[in-house]
Amino acid sequence: METHPAQASLLQAGRSLTHTRAVWTMVGATFLWSIAGVVTRHLEQARSFEVTFWRSVFTLASLLVLLPAVRGRNALAPLLRGGHALWLSGVCWSVMFTAFMVGITLMPVANVLVTMASGPLLTALVARVFIGHRIAPRTGMAIAVAGLGIAWMFGTQVRSVPLAGTLVALCVPLAAAVNWTVVQHAQRHGESVDLMPAVLIGAVISSLATLPLALPFAASGHDLLLLAFLGLVQLAVPCLLVVRCGRVLKAPEMALLGLLEVIFGILLAWWGAGERPGPAVLTGGALVIGALVFNELLGWREQT
Fold it and tell me: With CB atoms 3.0 to 4.6 Å apart as the test, which of 49, 61, 135, 165 could cross-link to 106 if both were Cys?
């Protein structure tokens, strides 16, 4: 098949991505992820499920353009030959897309981001329960400390943070944990899961699931522009970038760099929307992030 010059340059860039460039690309991707909270705070009329619906629709539209541009005309072929794991991964992505956006409409951005930071540790726990992955003592300790941090954050704010928001936010790291466990299990049995088609499936399911709940539409033209920006710049583009980085960076590096989303997101919401994190969020967040950094650094040291 003949390759378009622009496509060839993108493929070559993916092959020639150095470690340093991969690190900075990952930093850029986490920054793009982190803008969701501050941008959402500037919506005029769109709320809750309508926010999720439009972001998912614009993410889907963006991926339908970007994937063929990067991977060629057969970019969507995995959707036709994908197995159960691909579709289960897509369902998990849809839960993450939906729960994250609904969560930040129900409670402060910082609370949602700190809760999401527990994802890698929850993944270790879910993988242990369902596919028998051994949990290293350091990881078990990190899970306990992170759990304490989240309990402290929400326990001290029980009167000011709605229970619904807490439960919705917890769906994000839980769905992420199930997602990566499904992918690992499939790889164990010789089935490769292409994450980008799975993300596209997630956008489709999220759009369809939230459409009835989003009606009647209230979003203004201003809102639609912001949500289109989120669909393309905050979700579709960084997802493509992270997949490229995953070919160069090790898992502990990815997990550590991914924590920058929490830091960037809290600072942007504070600077751009006046959401100053309270002492409980800072204390709980420090425990969660500290536990993850400690665990991943030790894991990285063991691999080198």
Answer: 165
Q: Is the Cβ–Cβ distance between 86 and 138 less than 8 Å?
A: no
How many other CB atoms sit within 10 Å of the CB of residue 130?
14
Which residues, 6+ apart, have CB-to-CB distance to 29 below 8 Å? 237, 238, 241, 242, 245
Given phi > 0 = left and psi -120 to 50 = alpha, else beta, which region is 48? left
Burial class (CB in 10 A: 0-12, 13-18, 19+), 160: exposed
Are 58 and 228 in contact, with CB atoms under 8 Å apart? yes
Q: Indicate the pTM of the whole model.
A: 0.82
DSSP state of 107: S
SS3 call for 106: helix
- Contact assessment for residue 185 and residue 131, using Cβ atoms and an 8 Å cutoff: yes
Give the total residue count for the chain. Answer: 304
Other C-beta atoms lying within 10 Å of the C-beta of residue 134: 8
Give the angle subtended at the CA of 221 by the CAs of 216 and 227, to the nearest 5°: 80
Residue 184 CB contacts under 8 Å (≥ 6 apart), including other chains: 127, 131, 133
Per-residue pLDDT of the chain (304 residues; tens, 9 = 90+): 433 333 333 334 445 678 788 889 989 999 999 999 999 999 999 888 999 999 999 999 999 999 888 888 787 777 777 778 889 999 999 999 999 999 998 888 888 888 887 777 777 777 777 767 676 777 778 777 877 877 777 666 656 667 787 888 889 989 988 888 888 777 777 777 778 888 999 999 999 999 999 999 999 999 999 999 999 999 999 988 988 887 787 766 777 788 888 889 989 999 998 988 888 778 877 887 888 788 777 777 766 6
Measure CA 104 to chain center.
14
124 HSE (CA, 13 A, CB side): 22
